[in-house]
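Intended use. Records like the one below are meant for learning the mapping from a protein sequence to its folded structure. Do not use them to infer anything beyond what is encoded.
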Amino acid sequence: MPSTTPTATDALEPDAREEMLRFLDRESAIARATDGRLAVLVMELRRVDRLQALLKGPAPATTMALVIDRMRRALRPEDRLAALSDEQVCVVLPRLAHPSQAVLAAVKLLRVLDRPIAHEGGSAVLRPCVGVACLPDHGFDPAGLLMAADIARHIAATREEGYHVMQPEDRVETEVYRGLDLDLERAIRANELEMHYQPQVELASGRPVGIEALVRWRHAKAGEVSAQTVVGIAERTGLIGTLTFWVMNAALRQAAQWRAAGITPRIALNVSLSMLTDRELPAVVDQSLKTWSIPPQDLVIEVAESSTLVDAERSVAILTRLKGVGVQIAIDDFGTGFTSLAHLRRLPVDEIKIDRPFVRGMLAEKGDMALVRSAIDIAHNFSLRVVGEGAEDEATVAELTRLGCDVAQGHALSPALAPDALQAWWPKA
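Structure written out for the chain above:
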């Protein structure tokens, strides 16, 4: 008898979706009858278009085949998955003993897709997010579970962890967040966004040497909207160029005011993947520096490690042109993108920033400690400065100092501050 388990290619077809939905119907009925547990996961494959651009043949089908092949390795034989669209996959986890198994599955799926996906000489990182809903906690019927998982997926896109389990209050929150797409452009043009700045402290001397600029948005209904959410909305709505220009000029204008008061920190600005492939970016940066009379070497452009692996040739070209402007380049989230030493040597960078979770976990996890230690050694061998993010307690700061990390940022040193508060906090010369 042939196997009824869908293959990766089968999972792209409408029949595979229908089979998965029938499987969900059947397994949810069994769970209801036996007081059992079941979970539905909806995964969004953000940046899937970047991978499709590297692939030959029918791009959506090829892309999803590669993704589903990798996802299946993280699942049990009895689990089912199928593509809902070119950018979404649904996973059904039947017969769970405990809800924590659904969270574990979500984390495993994120990890297997965090590594670059290679095909015919190209590679890309997807940055997926996963929403989780469980029977009986979030409903009993398949349609309700799918809806709950999709709401959780929407919220997961705004969370650093990359996954979110449906909560009772989330239905209200999601309705509020859906309106943000329409409000962001107006907020940018009306100058309603705010900037906060997190100090970066040189560990050897204990003196602040830089700041990371972070955008904030106080929405009338949603309240405080995180920088990650703002950037995510901007990328979805095509406003990322407008947002980047606003943030850059707001930070440089503030830097000019600080310089008049005798404060001259390095200013770190994060640039998203979509901007890193924009040929106009170096000219925009150059013009903004000249407008506010800020020395180029005082600006650090941060790019995510994984973004340098997507369309690598163009990324290197844009970074090289930025270096020509005179700014410094930092690789952000170092440790998450599997950058090879050969690739690191090609990048015209001055600094690496070790990703926050590794720094936070290094005192408790041997693996995280080994990664932090190795990152510092590798960076110093390449004559690069090292910044440790997520220094949340004195013990972590002390260990980073012992390992030879150059600079750290985190709540143990200072939270992100409004401009006036930072000026008051900054040591006087």
